[in-house]
Amino acid sequence: MVNKNNRLAVSAILLLSVFGSLPPLRAGAKVMTVADVSLMGGKYFLDSQAASFQGRVDAFVSPTITLSENHVLIPVYSGNYSGTQDVQELAGGDVLTRKRQTHTLSLKYVYTDEFNKYKPRISYTKASIKETKNEEWGEGLFDYNTISAGFEAEQERPGGTFTESYDFFKVAYPNYSTLLSQSQSVFNDTTTFNELSTNAGENPLDNTSHRLGFAYAWFPEPLTMKAGYDFTYRTYPEQAIAARPVTGQSPFKSDKRADIMQNFSIKANRALKPVYLSAGARLGWLSSNQGSYDSTRSKFMGDYYSYVDFSLSPAMSLVLKNGTQFNFGVDWRKVYYLGRLKQGNTGNYGKADINQTYWLTSLSARYPVYNKFFVRGVYNYQISSSNMKFEESYKYNYRASTYLLGLEWEF
User: Rounded to whole angstroms, how far apart are CA atoms 409 and 59?
Assistant: First the structure.
């Protein structure tokens, strides 16, 4: 039997064949490589509790290959290793992770036809996440692999630039499976096991997505503006819908989970050299048919994962000619869940739905020390506050900060 990792690898090979008809690499082809690598160390603080000093590595390498005037091939490798703790949104809640590493290989082809551009693309990502100190790489519960393929069309017109895109994503969690699917030997009562396991999938987090995106960029002096809309339909083939409990029946329906996500965004940029200003706003909506049943309190909640959120993100950069750079940004996000009830400190449910507010302040600076090497420093401070006070499974209220200091090489 072919496991999920092998299936994704085979899919990646098949997708690469799409590019088999590209013009061959000629002797006159031009190659321009762009690279950026940073090696940093720092600490993470969660509610004033400090973790040990750890390292972080970020790498980006892209040798852009110009095959001819109208044909460009852009392979990219991007990787990240983070040894510092942080809070990540995983499986519907905020989870404290200790270490992470992510590696992505992508390939984009750009064909230019006068004022139009056509850009097919593929990528493969492998991510490993450690939640505990003694966890081995490759054994993390939330490790995942992603294979994606897409196409983008761009039309440059006198009034602005139109962009349309479609992307397909397939995500697999090789180490995450339901305990129920592995627990038949635990049940002495076959009838009970059959009731519980009916319609219960084995790999509930594996999902497939189709994303459509539309954007328009225009240039009202002295601003650069961009507005966008994207629509994503995501299915979970092995995640059954939670059913309202009925004695003698399966706690799962035969229907599978499906989510619809929509985002409206707008962003403005203005250059006042050496200062660069930007501000963005986004309105999002996620609609899910998945519910949740809390057996300890006999509470069923439909529409558990659905929410509406709104975010604002102003930023400012100071870029000097010698490469010195200062950046400051604020990200504010407000989330209103549409079917997830709040709980008090003891776990008792209230009548209102959960709402959550995030504040993230980011400061960074870099200074050239030799040739293409820079000293770089980063500081992030995040606040998460919510009317949800019960945090046995996920964190809703916390203060976290990270500081990093190290070297960056730019090529």
Answer: 9
- pTM of the entire predicted model: 0.84
Q: Which of 310, 306, 354 is nearest to 332 (CA)?
A: 310
Would residue 118 count as lying in a domain? yes
Tens of pLDDT, residue by residue over 267-316, are 999 999 999 999 999 999 999 999 888 888 888 888 899 999 999 999 99
Torsion of CA 47, 51, 54, 60, to 10 degrees: -30
Is 347 within the bounds of a domain? no
Choose among 342, 354, 361: nearest CA to 400.
361
Alpha-carbon distance 11 to 5, whole Å? 10
Provide the residue type at 136 as one letter.
E
Residues 6+ apart with CB under 8 A from 265: 227, 228, 229, 280, 281, 282, 283
314 found inside a domain: no
- The distance in angstroms from the start CA to the end CA of the chain is 44
Q: Are strands 398-410 and 30-46 parallel, antiparallel or unpaired?
A: antiparallel
Residues 6+ apart with CB under 8 A from 185: none
Q: How far is CA 312 from the centre of its chain?
A: 18
Strands (E), 131-274: 144-157, 160-172, 207-218, 223-242, 252-272
> How many distinct structural domains can be found in the chain?
1
- Find out whether 376 and 409 touch, Cβ atoms under 8 Å: no
Instruction: Write the CA distances from 388 to 96, 287, 304, 340, 350, integer angstroms.
Output: 17, 21, 14, 10, 10
Q: Whole-angstrom Cα distance, residue 346 to residue 132?
A: 26
Which residues, including other chains, have CB under 8 Å from residue 174's CB and lie 6 or more apart?
A: 3, 4, 5, 143, 144, 145
**Closest to 395 measured CA to CA, from 96, 194, 172, 156:** 96
Which residue's entry shows tokens 């992510």? 102
At residue 22, the 3 state secondary structure works out as coil
Domain that holds residue 118: 1-39+53-150
3-state secondary structure 268-286: EEEEECCEEEEEEEEEEEE
Q: Report the amino acid identity of residue 137.
A: W
Model pLDDT for residues 215-265, shown as the tens digit of each residue: 999 999 999 999 999 999 999 998 888 877 765 566 667 788 999 999 999
Is 293 a member of any domain? no
For 186, residues 6+ apart whose C-beta sits below 8 A from its C-beta are none
